[in-house]
Every structure is written in C-alpha cells, then in structure tokens.
Write a structure and sequence with these properties.
Chain lengths: 92, 184
C-alpha cells in the first residue's frame, strides 16, 4: 500500500488521512442503459495487478475527492489529481 | 443558550485548580476568540481569497480550496460575522464557529518533536514555514494546524474533541515537561 500521497491542495500526507473510495476509471452509464450495463457498473470490479486509477478522499485534510494513479504491485504513486480537474480533463 | 455555552469552556474540567507557572514548553488554551468559516461560492474562490488577504484585523487559515477559517482576538462573534458579511458581500457563506472550535497554542523549543508524535507532516520550516496552515490529522482527530512562529503552532479542534486532544497533547508532551493553562 502506498503510504505517502501528495495531495494537490495539502502536500505530502500519510495514507491514514485518506479514505479509498474505489475504481475511478468507471464511467456511469446513461439512465436508459441496459440492466447488464448497470449491473457491471455497480457490482463488477477487476482486481488488477499494476497501474490503477482510484478515488481517494482526503477526509482529514481538505476533504476533496482525488484521483490517484498507483501501482498495486510496486506501491509506486504515479499521479494525484483533484477529482473535479480529472473530470474536466476527461470530459465527464 | 449560546451565552451558556460561551461561559462554560470545553476544557474547564481539565484545567480546574490553581494554574502552574508555564514551563519552557507550554500549551495555552484560547478562550474568547471569535472564529468563522468562510466558504466561497462556486467560481468566486480567487476573489474571496484576495478580499480576505486584504484585511489585517483577523487571521486567515487555509483549510481547503475555497474554504478558510478566520480568527479574531478582539472582535465578538457577531462583530466578526458582520465584518465578513460586509467584506464578502454575497461571494461567500459565513458560518460562526466561535463556540464550535477550541484553540490550542503550543510553544517552546520542543514543539516540533511533540507534534511529530501525532501529526504525519513535515514541519521543518522549509516544508511548513511560519504562516503556513492546513487541515491535518493529529492522532485520530482532524485539526487545522498553523505555524504562527518558529516554535509556535496553533491547533483548532472541534469542541467535542477538545478534551481528547488535550489528553493526547499532554501525553505527547510529557517527556518535555509540557505545561498547560488558559491563555491570559
Ligand atoms: Zn488535501
């Protein structure tokens, strides 16, 4: 587990200040999408070995949602982006 | 109701009795400050930050993007609210926090070593200079931390956690003979 996360607003912080809120690569289906699409979105998760995108919330700091790109095998953190900035960049 | 709260400090029970003379490392508990939270409306974050930094009557503490804590040693809670309402004029929401938070001022040569027992932040002046402020975790309690001088830090904690944080800080400071009293 990555133990230091660099929050774009608060600086380098220990992981204890954060709550992990799950996969950030998923895109919410349209309200009219099929039951299968919604089932996959809500319940089905991969357990990847390597780079992942996750939502981390800095609950004990700025309380912002962040998108953390980290490696589940080497524990390396590649990037930390504010959730709102990530959404704008990716046109969500 | 508000007046009753204001007249009974959250740490009255802890600091009962004749105060000991302050030692080299001292924890002063603030009372009678006015505090308010300023929340900028969407898109007005930069404008509100400029307005807040233009005034010198109160201290401004960063807590999150578009969110600050403002502390006044001289004003009343009502006075601070009026002052901030006039200053921000609709660009921000102002929430009185005077009864909701307790101010801990830690000073002395060992403050950084005391805080290192509970706070996972680099407090070297290069990383956290005088005037820097941020929300952080102290033990299990979320506080707003600010460095007001080389060896002076202030922690703002929620009132209901004040007794617990006080006990934690006194334990963290025991080996440095930390003393505690209400601020003069
Ligand atoms: Zn943060």
């Amino acid at each position: 587990m990555a133990s230091l996360i660099t929050c774009p607003h608060c600086g380098v912080r220990p992981k204890e200040e954060f709550t992990i809120r799950g996969d950030a690569s998923l895109v919410r289906p349209a309200p009219t999408a099929s039951d299968e699409a919604w089932h996959d979105y809500v319940y089905v998760r991969a357990n990847p070995r390597g780079r992942t995108l996750e939502h981390w919330q800095h609950v004990a700091g700025c309380r912002r949602f962040l998108v953390v790109e980290r490696d589940t095998f080497t524990h390396e953190v590649h990037s930390v982006t504010d959730g709102a900035a990530f959404a704008t960049e990716n046109g969500r | 109701m508000i007046r009753d709260h204001y007249n009974r400090h959250a740490l009255d029970e802890k600091l009962r009795g004749a105060p000991r003379p302050p030692g080299a490392n001292h924890l002063a508990i603030g009372h009678r400050q006015a505090m308010a939270m300023v929340l900028a409306t969407a898109g007005e974050e930069d404008a509100v930050e400029r307005l807040l930094s233009s005034v010198t009557e109160f201290a401004v503490r960063f807590s999150a993007p578009g969110e600050w804590l403002v502390i006044s040693e001289n004003d009343t809670p009502e006075g601070l609210q009026r002052c901030l309402d006039a200053l921000c004029s609709g660009r921000a929401h102002i929430l009185d926090q005077s009864e909701a938070r307790v101010l801990f001022r830690l000073s002395g040569p060992s403050t950084r070593r005391i805080l290192a027992k509970g706070i996972g932040l680099d407090l070297h002046p290069i990383a956290f200079a005088a005037g820097a402020s941020a929300n952080a975790l102290c033990g299990h309690i979320a506080v707003n931390l600010v460095r007001t001088g080389e060896d002076v830090f202030e922690l703002l904690a929620p009132r209901s956690f004040a007794e617990s944080l006080f006990d934690d800080l006194m334990t963290m400071g025991r080996e440095y003979d930390l003393t505690a009293a209400f601020a003069a």
